[in-house]
Amino acid sequence: MTLSHVSSPSRFEHIPFSVFTGSVDASQALAREVATLVKKGRPDGSKVVLGLATGSTPLNFYAELIRILKTHPFRPLLGRPPTPARVKIW
Q1: Residue 58 carries which DSSP code?
Q2: What is the C-alpha radius of gyration for the chain, rounded to an integer number of angstroms?
Q3: pLDDT (tens digit, 9 = 90+) per residue, 22-73?
Q4: 30 in a structural domain
Q5: What is the sign of the dihedral through the CA atoms of 39, 41, 47 and 49?
Q6: CA dist., res. 87 & res. 29, Å (int)
Q7: Domain of 50, in residue numbers
Q8: Alpha helix ranges (H) inside 3-78
Q9: Total domain count for the chain?
Q10: With a threshold of 0.70, does the pTM exceed it?
Q11: Residue 3 pLDDT exceeds 60
Q12: Residue 68 CB: number of other CB atoms within 10 A?
């Protein structure tokens, strides 16, 4: 549950932010935002690149992102599709 979706900027801060009641709520909101960005792409048409952190802190976010992307699958644009000459089977 979001307590305050976007705060009005002060004279010092000009970054919109959200305040959540807990880490699960924050993880779910962030996962929805990232999934939308990954599915729709950037407004200017540039590539979307995710830098993913390690450790236990982002686990709720990753679990929710995986759940969303499995529930609403999409075909990512990862360059050329693989051809038999480029695919290695071990």
Answers
A1: T
A2: 17
A3: 999 999 999 999 988 888 888 888 878 888 888 888 999 999 998 998 887 7
A4: yes
A5: negative
A6: 36
A7: 2-71
A8: 23-40, 59-71
A9: 1
A10: no
A11: no
A12: 17
